[in-house]
Amino acid sequence: MSASPQKWSFFERLKYSLGPRLFRVIFTFTFVLSIFAAGIGFSLYSGAATGEYARTTYHTARTAWNTMDRDLITGYMNTVFDEYRSFTQGNAAPDDAYLSKTGTIVDENYLAAQSYLKMLCRSCDVDRLYCGIFDRANNRMLFILDANLNAEDQPPGQFISFDRSVVIDIKANKTTNRFMLMVDPDIGYACSSSYIIRNDKDYVYAVFCGVNLTRVVSDSLSFMAVFIMVLLIVSLITAFTFSWYMQYKVVRPINSLASAAGEYSIDRESGNIRDDHFANINIRTGDEIQNLSEVLKEMEKDVSEYYMNMIEASREQERLSSEMEIAERIQEGTLPSTFPPFPNLTDFFDIYALMDPAKEVGGDFYDFFMLNEDQMVFLIADVSGKGIPGALFMMISKIMIFNSAKMIGPDPALILEAVNTGIMENNKAEMFVTVWLGILDIHSGRLIAANAGHEYPFIQKAGGRFELFKDKHGFVIGGMDMIKYHNYEIQLEKGDAVYVYTDGVPEAVNTAGEMYGEARIGEALNKDPERGMEALLKETKEDLDEFSRDTEQFDDITMLGLRYYGDTGMQEMKTEAVLENIPAVTDFVDRILEKKSCSTKTITQINIAVDELFSNVARYAYKPDTGSVTVRVETEENPAAAVITFIDSGLPYNPLGKSDPDVSLPAEEREIGGLGIFLVRKMMDDLSYEYKDGKNILKVRKLL
Amino acid sequence: MNIEFKREENRLTAAVKGRIDTNSAPDAETQITEQLDGVDSLVLDFSEVDYISSAGLRVLLVLHKQMAPRGGMKLIHVNETVHEVLDITGFLDILDVEEEG
Fold first, then answer.
1. What are the strands, taking DSSP E only, across A280-413?
2. Of A263, A327, A641, B101, which has the fewest CB atoms closer than 10 Å, so is most exposed?
3. ipTM exceeding 0.95, yes/no
4. What is the pLDDT of residues A494-520, one digit of tens each?
């Protein structure tokens, strides 16, 4: 399967596509970096700002002390402090009695100083100036003279508890004039500095100056807001720019490569062959991606070329294999495969053959054909090569054997010699073939055979077992010039059988590497030696298959078997019932009788009978039309006899129904009719007639 | 079957060769009858006759009936088979057959 580019929905694209992802990463990174930078900036800024306020408040406080009437202020301080000390009642809040006592210090000078301080506040841009005493032990600020621009002034003597943490500097008994950040009880978050006038163990006399930091903080916050907005916009622009750049330089080229690759694979699958999928992409980024596209362009060309070659090669392969198939069929066709091969000779013998090629076309072959009316040639052969060369050589060998047999006649040795000579004349491939060839006289059972380097045959005689017959071997055909072969003869009696095979049978191996061997062939054959040839061969083959199960067959397996039934003597001919056919019928009968040792006189008598009986049928059976007649000749043994039957489908007519003519009459009174049948009756040993199934059946029997 | 004729005066010798059977008998009859003008003695030489069937017997009977008023017909050199046929059919009693050997 080829992969086609992922099809994404809009949201999936936002989530997974390289462009948006790059955008997100860059944006996040830029923004975090900016925030970090802003944080640093803000802390620097606020540090500077605080320092500035600290200086301003300190200087204002100092200026206030230096420009006021110090004795006057000190006097107020002492007066109020005395009252405060006398009022020491733990944590009690200041009450009206106390405050009215301390309030007595307010006079013209006090008010003038107060308004001076307020003026100073305004001119120095601070929010509060006051003279006070800090009670370290009680954490209290005792107000003496307060000038507050933003709220009601504290009356002299008023004191307030301070949060401990914000007054840590003073508490630590430091005598330097330091600013401090603290929450001013009246003006809120503030930066306050103190200019210390006197620093006792428990009380600090000082002028305090404060600036309301709420303003400062809100200034800083709005500054920060603007700053962050700017950073955000800058980050966005950076991310957009960068991701656009990446989109343009990386993502789009990659996408176009991916879609070209996708189309390529779709086209490939649908059989649409093009080699310009990548060639049409114009990537000019000048970087690795352009390199990649160039390489892909080249690669596609190469792959397409290779693919086309592959297709061509596979077509060629297909053509070859279909030719092989045809060759296989041609070869199969040359081997006789219709059984029984000679339907009118099934009473004489039973022949069967089978072949199981290891490859599509094998090198083994068998053949059988009638050399003439009485002799049948049967043979089995194994060509040294397999596959196409073996098949070609096999065809040549087979045809040569057939032609030589037809030319030379019933002499297996001479046939093999002629084939050897023919093949040696032009055996460029140095191939050879082993052949076992036998010629059976179907009437006498005489088998003449010769062996050209082939496996020993198995012979079964007289209802016994199949035995390996070690015949005289000649050299293989095609191996050497001028080879002589030797005929040997076996007299087959009724029921005797011959089994021949190729080396694929004994040399088949099992999973243990053992060969099937002649002994196992013998055992398989002898399980039931009396079987019909088809069953004998097929069951032997099954036994072999069982033996060599789970192993690869590497040689053709071919078997041929023949069982001789002896001359049962029945032969038939069918011919038109006309007088002109008498010689043909007579010849037919004579040919059969010639093989029996019988006297010329007997043959003549039978000829006369044929003449009389056939002419009878010809004249009368189909009158006035014509039809066919079947003449059957059967021979019998013990006693030797011939039975000749005439069968026609003409008018029912019993020639035996007439009484015999009087053969003692003088010539003048003689009638010629009826003499024929009379003659037959006299010369034959038995004569019978029946009308059956619409047929006249006339049968004569003559002892030989 | 074929026949060789030899004429000596009024004596005709017909030497028949082959089989005298259903197919050849009519031919034999025609050939011999054509030669019978003025013949008063007919000799049939059967030395080369293989056998004779009833059709041949009919020819012999026809010829015998023709020749009987004129001077007769004689069969010579009859083989065993033909002799047997003639014997079986009673023709030996009618025809003048010269015994072989």
1. 349-356, 364-370, 375-383
2. B101
3. no
4. 889 999 999 989 999 899 889 999 999
CA distances from A679 to A341, A685, B91 (A): 41, 12, 12
Q: How far apart are CA A498 and CA A471, in angstroms?
A: 13
DSSP structural state of residue A164: G
Give every CB contact of residue B44 below 8 A, 6+ residues apart in sequence. B13, B14, B16, B60, B63, B73, B74, B75, B76
pLDDT tens, B32-62? Answer: 999 988 888 999 999 999 899 888 988 998 8
Cα B81 to Cα A22: distance, rounded to the nearest angstrom: 127
Which residues, listed in sequence order, are joined to residue A190 by a DSSP beta bridge?
A182, A212
pLDDT, mean over chain A: 84
**Residue A274 reports pLDDT greater than 80:** no
Partner residue opposite B53 with nearest CB, options A611, A665, A666: A611
User: pLDDT tens digits, residue range A356-366?
Assistant: 888 666 678 99
Domain A571-703 has CATH 3.40.50.1820: no
Interchain pair B94, A678: CB under 8 A: no
Q: Residue B26's domain spans which residues?
A: 2-97
pLDDT at A188: 56
Q: Which residue has the higher pLDDT, A566 or A641?
A: A641
CATH code that applies to domain A336-564: 3.60.40.10
Half-sphere exposure of B64 (CA within 13 A, CB side): 21
CA distance A109 to A207: 17
| Separation in Å, CA of B52 to nearest CA in chain A | 7
**C-beta atoms of B53 and A667 within 8 A:** no
Of B70, B82, B8, B9, the C-alpha closest to B40 is: B70
Domain-wise residue ranges, chain A: 36-219, 336-564, 571-703
Q: Which residues of A touch B58 (CB under 8 A)?
A: 672, 675
pLDDT of residue A159: 85
Q: Which CATH number is A36-219 given?
A: 3.30.450
Chain B interface, mutation test: which of A604, A610, A612, A683, most B Cβ atoms within 10 Å? A604
Q: Say if residues A162 and A139 touch (Cβ distance below 8 Å).
A: yes
Cα separation, A73 vs A379, whole angstroms = 152
Starting from the edge strand earliest in sequence, which strands make up the sheet with A695-703, in order?
A571-576, A628-636, A641-648, A695-703, A686-692
Contact between A451 and A436 (Cβ < 8 Å) = yes
**Most A-contacting residue of B59, B62, B89 (CB-CB within 10 A), to test interface:** B89
